[in-house]
Amino acid sequence: MVKLPPWLVRLLHPLVHAAHRAMAAIWFATRPATTGVHAIPIDEQGRLILVRLSYAKGWRLPGGGVGAGEDRTAAVLRELREEIGMTAHGRVAAIGDFEHRPDFRRDSATLFLVEGVRHRFRPSLEVAEARAFPRHALPADLPPVTRRLLALWSAGPPID
């Protein structure tokens, strides 16, 4: 590895920083749209199943990305199998589409209600815990996106 003289490092540092910012701006403007799914899984006792991710704070709705050519309903059911160990379910209904992260204008997702969920959770590298909560006793540490999605669910019936 070549060691540059300190004066050259000081001279190049602002240029490298500016180039990095320009590349980040280009990536942000040209990156492909992402599509995701989130589930409001309700168990047979009417409780809401939430997950606690290993890399983020708070309890969240399970969900993830939709694969190329994958149907959104199939994607949400796959995510529930992967994240909470879903073994059975009843009715699946789309609640609606939303911008997953308003600060990233190309990220959208579909919210689903999945009823009659049975699950057998096993921790993974991604999901540290999954637990069923009565709707009137949800944990206090729900992130804003989870609160927003639960409010969308409370606003009206699924659109099937």
Give a description of the structure.
By secondary structure, the chain is of the alpha+beta class. It has 3 helices and 8 strands. Strands 1, 4, 5, 6 and 7 form a 5-stranded mixed β-sheet that branches. It has a 3-stranded antiparallel β-sheet with strand order 3-2-8, with no helix packed on it. Strand 2 (48-53) and strand 3 (59-60) form a beta hairpin. The longest helix is centred in the N-terminal third of the chain and has 25 residues, at 6-30. It is elongated and about 70 Å long. The mean pLDDT is 85.
What are its keywords?
single chain, 160 residues, alpha+beta, three-stranded antiparallel beta sheet, 3 helices, 8 strands, elongated
Q: Counting H and I runs of at least 4 residues, what is the number of helices?
A: 3
Radius of gyration, whole Å: 20 Å
Distance between the termini: 60 Å
Mean pLDDT, rounded to whole units? 85
- Coarse morphology: elongated
Tell me roughly what share of residues is in helical segments: 25-40%
Strand content: 25-35%
* Number of separate strands: 8
Indicate the low-confidence ranges by residue numbers. Answer: none
Main sheet characteristics: 5 strands, mixed
- Give the structural class: alpha+beta
What sequence of helices (H) and strands (E) makes up the elements? HEEEEHEEEEH
Short synopsis of the structure:
By secondary structure, the protein is of the alpha+beta class. It has 3 helices and 8 strands. The mean pLDDT is about 85.
